[in-house]
Amino acid sequence: MPALEDMRQFAAALPSRRNKGAILLHPALPEQRSYAARLAAAVTARHLDVLARFQEDASLMSRLATFTTDDLLALVAEQADPPLVVVSGIEFLLGVWLSQREPKQVKQELCRKAELWERQPAFVLVTHEDPVLAGYQPERFPGTRVVLHTSQTLALE
User: Fold this and answer.
1) Which CATH number is 16's domain given?
2) pLDDT in tens, 80-106
3) CA atoms within 13 A of residue 10's CA, in its CB half-sphere
4) Do the domain assignments include residue 1?
5) Structurally, how many domains does the chain consist of?
C-alpha cells in the first residue's frame, strides 16, 4: 500500500509543478465545502466555492446552461492571488454537464483539463468521489498525481 499523501505538501508544491491542477475526491457531499475550506486555510490558499459564487452572481447563473469546463477554469484563473486555489461546490455544474453530454467523456475531460493546466493559479478541485474520476491515468504527465482520494491522504487536523 502506498504512503498517504500529505495534502499540505502536495498542494504547496502544485504552483511549482508544470501541471498545476489536481482533483481531490471526497466521499461525503455535505462535508466537501468544509474540507475544502480547511485545506485552503492549511495551505494559505483561497477557497473558491463555485456554488456560492453562482448564487451571488446573477450573470453567472444566467449562463448556467452554457457554462463549460473552460468557463470553470476561467473562473479559477480570475483568482490570480494567491498562487493556489482550492475549489469546491461544482456538483451542480457536473449535473448540468452530465445531462448535456456523455458522462464518461465529461469526467475524463475534467481530469484531462486539470492535468494540462499550466496557468496560475494552481488549483485543487474538491469533488464527490466517482469511479471514472478515480480511474483517470495521466497521459501527458505520467507518474504525476492528478486525481487523489481523501482516503489516500493524511488527515488535515
Assistant:
1) 3.40.50
2) 778 999 999 999 999 999 999 999 999
3) 27
4) no
5) 1
